[in-house]
Amino acid sequence: MSAASIATINPATGETVKTFTPATDAEIEATIERAHERFRAYRTTSFTERAAWAHATADLIEAEADEVAAMMTLEMGKTLASAKAEALKCAKGFRFYADNTEALLADVPADAAAVGASTAFIRYQPLGVVLAVMPWNFPLWQAVRFAAPALMAGNVGILKHASNVPQTALYLADVISRGGFPDGCFQTLLIGAGAVEGILRDPRVAAATLTGSEPAGRAVAAVAGDEIKPTVLELGGSDPFIVMPSADLDAAARTAVTARVQNNGQSCIAAKRFIVHTDVYDAFAAKFVAGMQALTVGDPTDPDTDVGPLATESGRDEVAGQVDDAVAAGARIACGGQRPDRPGWFYPPTVVTDITADMALYTEEVFGPVAGLYRVDGIEEAIAIANATPFGLGSNAWTADEAEQRQFIDGIDAGQVFINGMTVSYPELPFGGIKRSGYGRELSGNGIREFCNAKTVWVG
Question: Considering the entire predicted model, what is its pTM?
């Protein structure tokens, strides 16, 4: 691997800002051993101690939010406003687990008499060293939503981050250290994907979590399965956004724009397929297209910019190719659809209509500001199209009809259903998907228990 393969490259200009040398085999070995040795002592620390370190880490992130935002914008192109919001969300995540872990991992009593014991309960205990393989699109938050619960549970972490956000990766390990967590609790390794298998097969590594693409998830899951190690996978999504006649169309259209172009359209839980009842299709489409056309595409450091560049040149080219292929097969462009003639990896907010099941756009995830618009005659057809994808991460449905709300909640195949709102991750709620969107959960009590041993205790 060349040094240039791990680098900060400004997506707004294509300029390589800084390159990094990948960790050597000796450095990888030292990192694993340091984590392994640290876990032996760290697991005995109290929730009170860990909570103090987590609060201190949150305070540092919050105080440094402007600098952290500028770093994320430079590395992957999100707007400064969204980058700062991400940093503040990370502080909130650390505080949530600092304040709630003791209760979330408290012993769970069982019916001792029913099992012939004087006492019986479940105790949650940490597993050990967990490898986290993280993506670039929310470079701090997606790593923190692993790190905060893992550290508070008593696990230790090794982070292999995406190769285009090395500065953010190094910052997270640094701020956790400055927050007071003991040396070795959380370490960043600047390595390529080829080094992941060796780390995961190491007997000192207990488990792994991955957020990223389906191929990456398959690779990690295959190795972990061979080694019989637990994993959590959060992969892609092609989330539906359904609009029924009783919906507040103005609110739905405004939210639809935000739901599609958040993070420059590069979010697994961004709404991607907009499924609209025929009775309100024309009215909604007019509002939605107008909202997409009104967005300003440009320099992500400019406060007036709504949509910055895509994070990588290959990602921009893939999005453009998906749109071009659909148009060649008969789809129609309602707005956007043309790469701007400017430096950087920009793509305009785009709405595609007349999509048919034989087009790749019908089932594939589009990781950019491109929306597919579908007309349906009723709720059954809406749910059928919503489920006609190999993914099942988030979903959105807009209706004031309580019977329809219940039908969407029960009928949509997804890890999350949001009614009259857009899918958002919250520390208080489980986050994850089904089908090819992955398995396991992050956040909430469900997430923190993923890397704990639910130990049955029976006392005669």
Answer: 0.97
